[in-house]
C-alpha cells in the first residue's frame, strides 16, 4: 500500500503513548468501587418480612435472615429411596442488610416441572434474577428443578413480596419450625469424627455444613460466610446404620477436578456441576452428588473431599 494511502489510517490510530495514557479509562469501574459490608441485625428487624413470607425464620451469624420452605407436600423417590424434604427438597431464602442501607435477597428454590415456568414468570415480573437452574437428584419421580434466585434492592418488604408472589405460583407450604431431634438410627458421633465437624439435625436429616474460608464477594457486596458458598453433606437414615447422602460441595476452579476424582473414588454418583451465582469472586463451582451405604463408611470416604477444598466447619 502506498504511503499516501496509509497516512489517514496512521493518523486515526492512537500513538503508543496515547494508548498507554488512555488505558486506565477502559478499566472496569468496579475496580475503584468500595466493597459494601453486611451489618448486624436482630430478628425484630425482620418481623415485617416474616409476616410477608408467611412464617418464621432464623438469624444466622447475626447478619443473615434465613427462612426455609421445605417441600413437605412432595412424595419424591430417587433410586428407590423416599427422599425426605430436608434431605434435598428444602427451598430457602435469605436476606442481608448492608452498610449502604440496601438489602440482598438470595435463595435456592425447589419447584416441580409443572410449576417451573409460572414460577419463573413471577420472578421476572418482580425483577428477581435467576442465577442457576439445575437438578440435585438423579432418576427422580416426580420431576423437580432447583433455581437460585437473586435481587439487590433498598426495600426488604418489596423483595419479600416479590419472592412470596413467586412461591404463590407453586404448592410450596408455608414455613414452620423444624424438628431438631437427632436421628436415633444413625451413629452421628462416627459421622462427626469422620467428617471433622459437628453436625446438626433438621427434620430427621443429619447435616454436616462447611463454609469457604475466603472472603466471597458478589459484585460489590461482601457475602456473609455460608451465603452462596456452603458445602452441605446431608445424611438420611435408612435403617441398620445405612444412609442416603445428598450433598453439595463448593469449590474454586483449581479444586474441581480433584474433588470429582475423589467423589468417584468414593463410589459416589455425580449429579451436576454448575455455578450458583453470576458475579461471585472468587468464581465458585458446585457439584451435587448422591450415595447410599453405611453412613460412617460414607462419611470416611467423603472426608478427603472436604480436605481438598478450602473450607471450615460452619459452626
CATH architecture of the largest domain: 2-Layer Sandwich
CATH C-level class of the largest domain is Alpha Beta
Task: Give the strand tally.
Answer: 19
Estimate percent helicity.
Answer: 25-40%
How would a textbook summarize the main sheet? 7 strands, antiparallel
Q: Do you know the CATH topology of the largest domain? A: Yope Regulator, Chain: A
Report the structural category. alpha+beta
Beta-strand portion reads 25-35%
Description:
- The N and C termini lie far apart (71 Å).
- The chain has 315 residues and is an alpha+beta fold.
- The chain folds into two domains: 32-177, Yope Regulator, Chain: A (2-Layer Sandwich), CATH 3.30.1460; 179-315, no CATH class.
- Helix content is 27%, strand content 35%.
- Helix 3 (47-53) packs parallel to helix 6 (156-167).
- Residues 1-31 have low confidence and may be disordered.
List key phrases describing it:
Yope Regulator, Chain: A, 2 domains, 315 residues, 19 strands, alpha+beta, disordered N terminus, 27% helix, globular, seven-stranded antiparallel beta sheet, 35% strand, six-stranded antiparallel beta sheet
Amino acid at each position: 500500500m502506498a504511503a499516501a494511502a496509509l497516512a489517514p489510517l496512521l493518523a486515526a490510530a492512537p500513538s503508543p503513548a496515547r494508548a498507554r495514557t488512555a488505558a486506565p479509562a477502559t478499566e472496569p469501574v468496579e475496580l475503584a468501587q468500595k466493597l459494601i459490608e453486611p451489618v448486624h441485625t436482630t430478628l425484630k428487624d425482620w418481623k415485617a418480612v416474616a409476616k410477608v413470607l408467611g412464617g418464621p425464620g432464623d438469624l444466622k451469624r447475626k447478619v443473615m435472615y434465613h427462612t426455609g420452605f421445605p417441600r413437605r407436600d412432595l412424595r419424591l423417590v430417587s433410586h428407590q429411596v423416599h427422599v425426605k424434604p430436608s434431605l434435598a427438597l428444602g427451598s430457602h431464602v435469605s436476606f442481608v442488610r448492608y452498610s449502604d442501607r440496601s438489602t440482598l435477597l438470595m435463595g435456592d428454590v425447589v419447584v416441580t416441572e409443572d410449576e417451573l415456568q409460572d414460577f419463573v414468570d413471577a420472578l421476572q415480573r418482580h425483577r428477581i434474577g435467576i442465577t442457576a437452574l439445575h437438578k440435585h437428584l438423579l432418576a427422580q419421580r416426580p420431576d423437580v428443578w432447583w433455581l437460585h434466585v437473586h435481587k439487590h434492592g433498598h426495600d426488604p418488604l418489596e423483595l419479600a413480596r416479590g419472592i412470596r408472589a413467586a412461591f404463590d405460583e407453586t404448592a410450596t407450604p408455608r414455613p414452620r419450625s423444624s424438628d431438631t431431634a437427632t436421628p436415633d438410627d444413625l451413629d452421628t458421633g462416627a459421622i462427626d469424627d469422620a467428617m471433622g465437624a459437628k453436625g446438626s439435625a433438621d427434620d430427621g436429616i443429619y447435616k454436616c455444613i462447611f463454609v469457604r474460608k475466603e472472603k466471597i464477594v458478589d459484585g460489590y457486596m461482601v457475602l456473609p460466610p455460608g451465603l452462596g458458598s456452603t458445602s452441605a453433606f446431608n445424611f438420611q437414615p435408612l435403617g441398620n446404620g445405612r444412609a442416603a447422602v445428598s450433598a453439595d460441595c463448593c469449590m474454586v476452579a483449581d479444586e474441581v477436578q480433584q474433588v470429582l476424582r475423589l467423589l468417584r473414588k468414593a463410589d459416589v454418583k455425580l449429579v451436576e456441576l454448575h455455578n450458583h451465582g453470576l458475579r461471585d469472586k472468587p468464581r465458585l463451582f458446585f457439584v451435587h452428588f448422591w450415595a447410599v451405604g453405611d453412613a460412617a463408611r460414607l462419611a470416611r470416604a467423603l472426608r478427603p473431599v472436604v480436605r481438598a477444598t478450602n473450607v471450615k466447619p460452619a459452626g
